Amino acid sequence: MNVTRGFTGRPRVHNPGLPPGQYDAGDDWPVLSAEVTPDLSPADWTFRVDGLVEQSRTWDWDEAHELPSSAYEGDIHCVTSWSKFGVRFAGVSLDAFLAEARPLASATHAVAYAHTGYTTNLPLADLTGGRAWIVWEYDGEPLPAEHGGPARLLVPHLYFWKSAKWVAGLTLLDHDEPGFWEQNGYHARGNPWEEQRYAGD
Amino acid sequence: MTETFVPATRFAVPGRIAVSNRSAALWQTATLTEIRRETPYASTFRFAVPDWQGHLPGQHLMLRLTAQDGYTAQRHYSIASPPEDTGHIELTLDHVEGGEVSGWFHTEAAPGDEVEVRGPLSGFFAWPGDRPALLIGAGSGVVPLMSMVRHHRARGLSVPLRLLVSARGPEELIYAREFGAETTTVFTRSAPAGVPVGRMTAAHVAALLAEQPDDGWEAYVCGSNAFAEHASRLLLTAGQPVDRIRIERFG
């Protein structure tokens, strides 16, 4: 252990919800997108599921809203070290979209892509079983554009770069294919509890 | 493999810099050798990192402080120094109110102190000195852009480079003494006599777009989220292609 002379740090708070190396950002919600925030209206938003599925399908705003609504209330964790507690998102479980597209048995991974062109890769198992959503509401209000509105992917058990803003679709694959940050040195899976920040962690 | 992913939309934000992951996974000791005050709120911290593998201008690193009881705090910081400064890195840090890490730097740190760093990280915001660069920053957002300016000078590069930098006033302009003909300054709160005060405008950006080289600019925007939103909209309005705007937001 390399102790830093004179460094004491913040008062220690026992917070079992805080993954290693993270701090509680409190009310802050930093915006860290690498691209220009798009001017995307709900009328222009679509979400597609294709690749290794029985039935490729695209939903527009109204069609997506006809699926059963589902909410997430819990925590989110950004690779830049902040975590945010007790956030409330609402939208539709990704399971509901996948149930209509019906993934083939050979599908093991997915690339999520955004209307901006941003991409991120995930194991399919991280997107199913009630652990991932398409969300359009934050704290009871429409999701702000700079946070990915009109709609973003939400995969709260992984670092937040996996939760693609302005999500446009999901392509299912039989292999892992690095997305935008993953090609730029970030970890393929990004589990905050194992501190998988960068490739090699 | 049965299928390869083809983006359904234009890939607006391509990463084009191959990043070595060997150094990113490894914590190294960085020894503080010098502290230079830049403004009343920001200082530059110079470190010796003997095994530093080098970086590209615009990249950042992760820095970690450890307390006696093993508690650690880590933050991402942009690198201010150019890659030519072998075996050394410089960080310019604002004194954030209540900042756990920046607070230590601004009140405790002294030459000889050791911290840990890992990096360089991320290739997206890197500029290897190949294409014409239009750099737009505000406040400490100028830090990674200064690494690019310094690299440009150290190598004597002929590729065009322009810096448009915004600060609240002259006394808060980081690196003020180092700027040359490549730099245009904008002051938002106070300015010397005869210099206008106000936000960065379409006119500032239009003037730089008007002198763009034949192949256009690669634009690099760095600052707070509010500034990044403002500057990127000015760039789009002035005709800069959206897929040639890279943004680093300080969160």
From TrEMBL, chain A:
Residues 1-21 are annotated as: Disordered. InterPro entries: OxRdtase_Mopterin-bd_dom, OxRdtase_Mopterin-bd_sf. Pfam families: Oxidored_molyb. Residues 37-181 form the Oxidoreductase molybdopterin-binding domain. This is Molybdopterin-binding protein.
UniProtKB/TrEMBL annotation, chain B:
GO terms for molecular function: 2 iron, 2 sulfur cluster binding; 3-ketosteroid 9-alpha-monooxygenase activity. Its cofactor is FAD. Residues 25-127 form the FAD-binding FR-type domain. Pfam families: FAD_binding_6. Keywords: 2Fe-2S, Iron, Iron-sulfur, Metal-binding, Oxidoreductase. Its EC number is 1.14.15.30. PROSITE patterns: FAD_FR. This is 3-ketosteroid-9-alpha-monooxygenase, ferredoxin reductase component. It comes from Streptomyces griseorubiginosus. The gene is kshB.
